[in-house]
Amino acid sequence: MQIYQRDAIEAVVTLNLDALAAVEAGFVALGRGDAVQPSILSMAIPEANGEVDVKTAHIRGGERFAIKISPGFFDNPKIGLPSLNGLMLVLSAKTGLVEAVLFDEGYLTAMRTALAGAIAAKHLARRDSRRVAVLGAGEQARLQIQALRLVRDIDTVDVWARRGEAANDYADHLREAGLAVQVHDSVAAACAEADIIVTATPSREPLLHARDLPEGVHVTAMGSDSPEKRELDDSVLTRADAFVCDTRAQSETNGELKGFAGGQPPFKVHELGRVIAAEERLRLSQATITVCDLTGTGVQDTAIADYALQQLA
Fold it and tell me: What does pTM read for this prediction?
């Protein structure tokens, strides 16, 4: 059994086309029914303002699978500790023996989440998309732009965040990467000319409404990954010409579909893996509006963990 720390993992796993292909292959396996993926195991620890999620999946034919333990203790910054942490156990799919422990401190989750956003844009956003509106200014907001540049020629970013200081710091970071950036004081202003909108916030109430959507835009919602979080108003979903999620079951409990009683929205629900596997064409014109809700899946964790071990070997 091998044990790897975060610094070793960071050295070999970056946002690149090979990593993107590995995570995309995981989506395809899920879409084809070639993956076993149980429901998320979640536990709240309210007295410490904490929670922990456990995700796993097995891709049939794969040599190994991962079990990810992902704690979030949101008062930690007050005592100088990060709020997010975690590790992945990688086991043999033939014997069940532990092959490796990846003490990545949540790094691989951040990578596969950013890559999932890029994969969604690759298959749903207009090919000529160049301008992105980002709601949020945290780590995932930064990584989303970096990953998007793997699949689209992004040159302009519009930023909105609740904290102006964070928005300005984020904008400076993007300018250093050679992008034109403007910080806005409203969601509507940030989204007015967007080709792609990315929501990457911990919001507990809708931030984005149908009135904020330009013609032909693609929206990727990243932040709603638990029952109490919400970024998109229902009007965004009903306005869209195509709604896609990573898994419908998770979107109904943790994602943006939970606003519809009984999980029965008045539109067709597509799953991203099936869209890719079947080569479905959901963008029928330059005016088509698409929305993708990503809650994070076990198959993504197994895919990125397997990729990491291949690079570490």
Answer: 0.94
